[in-house]
Amino acid sequence: MLYTESLAKLVAELKRMPGIGNKSAERLALYILGLPKDEAGKLAQAILQLKERIFYCSRCGNITEVDPCTICQSPARDAGILCVVEWPNDLLAIEKTRGFRGHYHVLMGAISPKTNIGPEALRIKELQARVSSQQVREIILATSPTLEGEATAMYLYEVLKPLGRITHGGRIGVCR
Amino acid sequence: MSLKNTEAVVLSQLRLGEADRIITFLSPQLGKFKGVVKGGRSLRCKMLASTMPLTQVAVWFVEKRTSGLHLISQCDIINPFRTLKENLHKLVSGLYLTELVEVATWEVEPDEGLFELLLWGLGSLAAGERLQAVLRIFEIRLAVLLGYEPQLSFCLGCEKELAGRESYYFSFAKGGVICAKCRAGARGCKISLGSVNFLRQALRFQQEKLGRLTLTAASSKELQQILPAYLSYHLERKINSLRFLNLLNVRC
Question: Given this model, what pLDDT does residue A167 score?
Fold first, then answer.
């Protein structure tokens, strides 16, 4: 055996992460091995805390430690504008621009007919309920520029059309 | 390794690792083949638009003899079928056609007829409003190309010619029409003579004249049940996009 049992176990776990191959996993495992015990403990604690404390916001679907999330709770944000994204990392990308001050709705994916992901697998009913109950003036569909993203945007447009009028710019916005 | 080029239709995309994509093409000369676009998942990728499914392209690739997964070096758009991608119903119909072709074909088996049929299908969906008629014509013609041409002239049991007064059934297992007497417990969907005539004409007409064919609402409903199930039965595969397509049909 090339590695000791514990090292082999850590390399195998690290290899399962995206973008980490055998060499990178080996390098990370050896780095962790070289860390002082309390530093390695902090890393393990951070991973455990992440799994224990973080969940999805019941209102928008963002990753959060408090429910509703800080974005949904913030009085400085305009609840009348709703930006619909596919995944929480899309929300983070828009937040990093610091240009959007409205609320979000995370769908948790996109419609993909070929892989059997239909609208019922996404948080579309929650979006409809939110649009009906909340004072939403404008919905921005910020799905990805792929065929699946376009299909999702077109489906949402059809579903949300009865709730308001279409703004200029066609399928990327619905106004109540 | 040699650089080759061919005309093709993009059938589907698949993620490969963190940054790349595997693209499945259908070409008249090479049949179905797969290629890797390095950095294809990046928004800066020059081939992002041209490797979108439902696009007719001219593709240049480095042939890999060992893996069967070629390296795509250039991909230029011939026809983007733009109007197909701007309407949800048309888009899902197009995805259904490409899924059917992908499921029904083996890699590297050239079939010019199939390529022409797919181009006709996508072009007709993009151009017109008769989505159901286009889908049914595509399905029956695909069945013929795959060697599953159904018998539509006489009953497969008693071999009598089809007549107006009888009621008929379409048997998937027997591959054609059977009369009520010969059915005798065998599984089959009810089919009207109007629908049978539509299928006969869909097979007889030349491709450029298929636009003249009309499909009544009753026949459309009937054939919508029969043809996808007939293809699924023989391909021994479930067509995923059909579920969403049916959902849209109900909503319409």
Answer: 55
Question: Chain B residues with CB-CB distance to A under 8 A?
Answer: 12-13, 17-18, 43, 48, 52-54, 85, 87-88, 91-92, 95-96, 99, 240-241, 243-245, 247, 251
User: Do both B18 and B104 map to the same domain?
Assistant: no
Residues spanned by the domain of B93: 83-251
| Phi, psi (degrees; rounded to nearest 5) at A139 | -120, 130
Fold of the A5-53 domain: Helicase, Ruva Protein; domain 3 (1.10.8)
In the sheet that holds A165-166, the strands lie side by side as A102-106, A78-85, A138-141, A173-175, A165-166
Task: Give, in degrees to the nearest 5, the angle at Cα B23 between B22 and B25.
Answer: 150
Examine the domain organization and report whether B131 and B244 are in the same domain. Answer: yes
pLDDT tens, residue by residue, A24-57: 999 999 999 999 999 999 999 999 999 999 999 9
- Cβ within 8 Å, pair A154-B87: yes
Residue B208 pLDDT greater than 90, yes or no: no
Which has the higher per-residue pLDDT, B188 or A117?
A: A117
Model-level ipTM above the cut of 0.90: no
Do residues B41 and B98 share a domain? no
Final residue of a structural domain among B60, B80, B100:
B80
Helix-helix angle B193-204:B131-145, to 10 degrees: 70
DSSP category for residue A35: S
The domain tally of chain B equals 2
Q: Which residues of B touch A151 (CB under 8 A)?
A: 88, 91-92
Q: Using 50, 70 and 90 to split pLDDT, how confident is the model at A1?
A: low
Residues of B in contact with A154 (CB under 8 A): 87-88, 91
**Is A74-175 assigned to CATH 3.30.310.180?**
no
